[in-house]
Write a structure and sequence with these properties.
Helix content: over 70%
Structural class: mainly alpha
Radius of gyration: 15 Å
């Protein structure tokens, strides 16, 4: 597995983890109304959006390099 392929897999896993944790915290905020859950959910969702933007930038930058 090349470094590019590993990077794509790692960024994809990170995006899924960030959005999953954000969803968990925001759904928990609906139950508890604790401000910390709201901040963690919004922060994690923001990190997920940032990771998606980084993934797009990375793929555009290295479009001429193969995955092998």
């Amino acid at each position: 597995m090349s470094l590019k392929a590993f990077h794509v897999v790692f960024i994809t896993a990170s995006v899924l983890l960030a959005f999953g944790f954000g969803w968990f915290e925001l759904s928990r905020y609906q139950d508890t109304r604790d401000t910390v859950d709201l901040w963690l959910g919004c922060g994690s969702s923001g990190a997920g959006i940032g990771l998606v933007a980084y993934g797009i930038y990375f793929l555009k930058k290295l479009k001429n390099i193969s995955y092998l």
